[in-house]
Amino acid sequence: MVKLKITAKGQVTLKKEVLDHFGVKPGDDIEIDLLPKGEGSIHAVERRLPIESLFGMFAHKADRTYSIDEINEAIEAGWAGEVKL
Known about the structure:
alpha+beta, elongated
């Protein structure tokens, strides 16, 4: 259990242990579901990238072109677990 102090302004500073547990960093959002009897459930809000971050993601050029046979062989090797990423 982690104890947090509430400031005179009603603010709470989350300790590094809590931030690491939720996988959040400054600027990220968290949500608190208010439950009966003064309890709550807290969780990190899933980060969503702006659509602009996807622009140009396939723009790089490969060193060479690959044949359908080479692509199929690579897929088969991946499914067989022969390729380490």
